[in-house]
Design goal:
Elements (H helix, E strand, L loop, with lengths): L2 H18 L5 H18 L9 H15 L5 E3 L5 E4 L6 E5 L4 E4 L11 E2 L5 E8 L6 E8 L6 E6 L4 E9 L6 E5 L1 H29 L1 E3 L2 E3 L8 E4 L8 E4 L4 E4 L10 E6 L2 E3 L3 E4 L2 E4 L5 E6 L6 E7 L2
Parallel strand pairs: 2-10, 3-9, 4-10
Antiparallel strand pairs: 1-2, 4-7, 5-8, 6-7, 8-9, 11-12, 13-21, 14-15, 15-19, 16-17, 16-20, 18-19, 20-21
């Protein structure tokens, strides 16, 4: 123990310690080393493991579930194989001496060149077609004869794609494309909005065609407008109709002259019936087969006749 304390005193306390004539005991030595060790670990934290075995297993299971998921595929335009983006990890099968490609959504652009895990045995090129918002980017992939499974990472202005590349001797995918959940939601929203707009237009047209009668709004198709009107006079009715219980005679909205006298006509001759006026409208308390509207007498009388068509 003698060599230890002496060495520690000279190397740590220096010559000053020796001039002071003080010796450091083994206990003090151990304590000082402990203090210095704590100081060092305070400055540089001891590394902590990122995950334990249970977390590793969970991460592996989630990643395997993503890679091995059973995403649905469908046939798209121009022979494309359509997959739902985000449902599972897509796989692009490529055959030697053949080209397979990935088609991005129209208007989607790359933010950097695609990255391939094995850039030696897999060649990747970028092509584009169309203009403006209709421009479509294609990632063209071709395997070498010695190619093995690898992956490709694509980043765009809208999303990122992580695609597995599988070499195949027989089957391959000429064109891989995607459907997007947000597009489907937007399309559904547009359809709902279009149906609502159509319903609003229909209601508006129906309201415009509806006839207001005694404080009620009656659809025009529920009224009978089958009346023939003859004669010439400023008060010639703009329309005549009945609702099955009453007859309505509408004079022109612009007419401001003397109101005519109404007399109902039929097989049995002229008939006086009850009626009332509401603005420029005659409201007759029954469905009449015909009638006359007259102003004046004698040779200066003006008469308008109407008859219901059967």
């Amino acid at each position: 123990m003698r060599n230890g304390p002496r060495f520690f005193k000279r190397s740590v306390l220096g010559e000053g310690g020796r001039r002071a004539g003080k010796r450091v005991s083994p206990v003090s030595c151990v304590a000082l080393v402990a203090v210095l060790s704590l100081g060092v670990t305070g400055l540089w934290p001891v590394p902590v493991m990122a995950s334990d075995e249970a977390t590793d297993a969970q991460v592996d299971a989630l990643a395997a579930g993503w890679r091995n998921g059973k995403g649905a595929a469908a046939e798209g335009v121009a022979g494309a194989v359509m997959m739902e983006y985000g449902e599972t990890q897509p796989v692009l099968k490529c055959k030697v001496l053949n080209i397979c490609s990935v088609r991005l959504r129209p208007g989607e652009v790359l933010t950097e060149a695609p990255t391939v895990g094995d850039a030696v045995r897999w060649s990747v090129a970028v092509r584009a077609g169309g203009n403006g918002r209709d421009k479509v980017v294609y990632i063209v992939v071709k395997p070498a004869s010695t190619a093995e499974e690898t992956s490709m990472f694509i980043t765009t202005n809208e999303r990122a794609y992580h695609i597995e590349l599988h070499p195949s001797d027989e089957r391959y995918t000429p064109l891989l494309a995607f459907t997007y959940p947000e597009d489907r939601e937007a399309e559904n929203a547009r359809r709902v909005a279009a149906m609502q707009a159509e319903a609003d237009r229909t209601a508006k047209v129906a309201a415009q065609r509806a006839i207001h009668v005694d404080g009620r709004s009656i659809p025009a198709d529920e009224l009978d407008f089958n009346y023939r009107i003859s004669g010439k006079a400023p008060f010639k009715p703009a329309r005549i109709f009945n609702d099955g219980a009453r007859t309505y005679v509408d004079l022109p909205d612009t007419y401001r002259g003397e109101l005519p006298v109404f007399v109902a006509t039929g097989v049995g001759g002229n008939e006086i019936v009850n009626y009332r006026l509401s603005g420029n409208r005659f409201i007759i308390d029954k469905v009449v087969p015909g009638g006359e509207l007259t102003i004046g007498v004698g040779g200066r009388a003006e008469t308008i006749r109407f008859r219901r068509s059967q």
